[in-house]
Write a structure and sequence with these properties.
- The protein has 321 residues and is mainly α.
- The chain has two domains: 127 residues; 191 residues, no CATH class.
- The protein is 71% helix and 0% strand.
- It has twelve helices and no strands.
- The radius of gyration is 20 Å and the shape is globular.
- 36% of the residues are buried.
């Protein structure tokens, strides 16, 4: 298959599936607000059912960690080769209807770091023990991704405002840049919240705030345009684009959770109680996301029943994962 940056939607999906068992284990099995590791298994005492569920989740988590890092390595190699031919990059960037695909690696790679500090640390407890010594390298990676993301977003905005755009062909896949802003913000806000270095956490928090404000502004503008075009056209997109409707869900969750972690940093640094506003932000973002998810299922019911299994694979289907 010819390389396209959209391939990174697959690695992103694998990262998501690796994170789900980790979060479930942390909250529902180990009932812990801190870090968990495989050494905690001996502490489980609620019977064989809970123990069996834990091992099932650990197996799924381990499998998808391997899948994620294997695919990331393969696709990164293909990405570097693809970028060496600048013509490919320039042609895609000049197309305002398709250049959002360029943001796919910038969605997946921050989630790679989240997987590294989360699910991977479950199997390698030494990562948790040496977390603070890893904050500087993590911040350098975050800064690199942040700089690329902001410059790419500015370039894409310039192309959109200076090139002729057939607005009727816009679809919800156009939101990939917002998803990238949310993923990078989540990575950065985690550093700001976890780091014991005031310098690192302060710089990370400032950069996250820039990305979050930009992400919210772009998200609002794009959603308004997309809703307007959809209502105006009164025609559903092509089958291979339909699953992109689900792409409203992850930005809502990522932006909301990033704000939550940023408030954790602010509470720790400035000493004010952010519990109430944190609760409101989390409830609003996830309630909105789940409402849209349910609406999307109802809207695409015929597609899910008749077309999903019969149609050819399209990258937009990763949005459902």
């Amino acid at each position: 298959m010819k390389f396209t940056p959209l391939k990174f939607q697959g690695t992103l999906a694998a990262a998501g599936v690796a994170l789900m068992p980790y979060i479930f284990l942390k909250i529902n099995i180990f009932k812990s607000e801190g870090d968990i590791s495989s050494a905690n298994l001996s502490l489980l005492s609620n019977g064989p059912l809970e123990y069996g569920i834990a091992w099932f989740l650990i197996t799924v988590m381990g499998l998808f960690i391997i899948i994620h890092f294997t695919l990331t390595t393969i696709f990164l190699k293909e990405l570097f080769v693809w970028l060496l031919t600048l013509t490919n990059f320039k042609e895609l960037m000049k197309n305002p209807l398709a250049n959002s695909a360029l943001f796919s690696p910038l969605i997946s790679l921050p989630m790679t770091m989240v997987v590294f500090f989360g699910p991977v640390s479950f199997f390698v407890p030494q990562l948790t023990e040496n977390m603070q010594s890893l904050m500087l390298p993590a911040f350098i990676v975050f800064g690199f991704l942040w700089a690329i993301l902001i410059s790419l977003e500015m370039t894409a905005a310039k192309v959109f405002f200076t090139q002729s755009v057939d607005h009727e062909k816009l679809n919800f896949g156009w939101l990939l840049d917002v998803l990238a802003l949310g993923a990078v913000s989540l990575f950065g806000s985690s550093i700001a919240d976890l780091s014991n270095s005031n310098l690192i956490s302060s710089f990370a928090a400032f950069m996250v705030m820039v990305a979050l404000l930009l992400g919210i502004a772009v998200f609002f503008v794009k959603v308004v345009i997309l809703f307007y075009q959809q209502i105006k056209s009164k025609v559903m997109p092509d089958v291979n684009i339909l699953p992109a409707y689900f792409l409203i869900v992850p930005p809502m969750c990522l932006l909301g959770f990033s704000f939550y972690k940023l408030l954790g940093y602010a509470s720790k640094t400035y000493g004010f109680d952010a519990n109430a506003i944190s609760f409101l932000i989390m409830v609003f973002s996830y309630l909105t996301a789940m409402s849209w998810f349910i609406f999307s299922i109802a809207l695409l019911r015929e597609y899910l029943k008749k077309e999903f299994m019969a149609s050819e694979f399209s990258p937009a289907q990763w949005g459902m994962v």
